Amino acid sequence: MASPTKPDWQAIGKKSAKDGELTxxxxxxxxxxxxLLMVERVETGWKVLRGPGGRITAAFxxxxxxxxxxxxxxGGRSVLVESKLRKGERLTWTDFQKHQHEALIEHHTIGGLSxxxxxxxxGLVIIEYHRLLELGFRPKHGLSWxxxxxxxxxxxxxxxxxxxxx
Length: 166
What we know:
By secondary structure, the protein is α+β, with helices and mostly antiparallel strands. It has helices spanning 9-33, 98-109, 129-134, 145-149; strands spanning 37-41, 46-50, 56-61, 69-72, 78-85, 90-91, 113-120, 123-128, 143-144. A hairpin with a 2-residue loop joins strand 7 (113-120) and strand 8. It is globular and about 50 Å long.
């Protein structure tokens, strides 16, 4: 049992993993429901460091990946999706790593559809990345749930209330 003064990192990690798994399922289902084909989670390989007794002491991604999901629109257009699970009312620039911003921009520039799937306390919303930029998304200027959800795409807002999920 964890000390009252120290965080129980194992419990926090398990909850985070469970929340992430639920979010992945929600995002995949929402993409499929909107007609995207071949929706696949991009796997990230991990290097695991073990301490005495084989206990995991650290884990690091082996390489950076362009996004969390890949899909195809009817007709063949490539889709790249970055999924974010964040508490609170704002999506911030720092919620993304530099390589994620770069991949979403490059994918859009070469003709693909770059999407952000944001899950927060309000639910799930999916929006085109370039639309976030048009709304003023940039360093030190995040966007509220209201701003993002009012401009959601494919082809209509995808808003899912986690409290009513089965």
